[in-house]
Amino acid sequence: MGNQEHPLDRRLSVAPMMDWTDRHERFFLRLISARALLYTEMITAHAILRGDRPRLLAYDPAEHPVALQLGGSDPAMLADAARLGAALGYDEINLNVGCPSEKVQTGRFGACLMLEPELVRDCVAAMREAVSVPVTVKHRIGVDDTDSYEALTRFVRIVSEAGCRSFTVHARKAWLSGLSPKQNREIPPLTYETVYRLKQDFPQFEIILNGGVRTIDDAVAHLEKIDGVMIGRAAYETPYILAEADRRVFGVEGLVPSRREILGCFLVYVRAELEAGVALRHMTRHILGLFNGVPRARTWRRLLTEGAVPDGAGADVIERAMEALPEWALDWRAGDPLPEGERLRA
Q: Which of 99, 112, 123, 164 is catalytic?
């Protein structure tokens, strides 16, 4: 079926992150921001077609808007995987052309595909033909020594021939050998000006910036020059930064949730998942950073980490950790003045 893209607000999104943005993390983040677009971890098309599909593609309806990120380089397999994702209700299908790990290169997907823009074009074309939701691409500004602006624009131009109109650009190049994935997130310099220039030269496309964005202030500043911002590690390590996203980025007025309110809703989810056989530690690992910057945050992390270890650990572990925190820290809402004598720590 032909692609009939519907409007999807990508002004602020949370990046797909391996081992991090699983369904528990996404449910938790949705309690903080109702509007930010959430992404799954990268899932290979092969895994979806040959593996435990219900487990890999499971998500809670509350996660919407939520996008499925796929990895792969076989157009037919990607089309089949995209079709399955769209049938389950994912709001967008995204192709990973940015991951620099050696494992990914061996499987011929991720950042190495930037060197084969015609193949990426064919993959996108097959996926767009298979689904009616938007198909987008996430990539780097360059790979190894193929890092000129001309090479980047050539990549975007060729991929756009398949009808792709939204490009999420990690503002660092990728080194496919010699640097680990972690080093590839830190060592290559951020060159935001390259992403800004890409938007200027391709005003007809949606250009979203990724890389090094740590706060909503950062996001708002970037949005003056590009269409959207994707936040990665900061959204995981300090998730409460998203509490002001709906108001400041999306212009939605309403009461910012307090951490107590967020946890109250999350506890309902946790108890249901515990009943379904999910171990507590698979959920508490995602909320360790909720109180970063607040007094006794270290105590919060310790109580959760230690308490979730035993088999059969229950939701009371979270409740006890909450009791160890100052009352004001639980009830304070981002954007409000702090109680007299209190301050947030860097």
A: 99
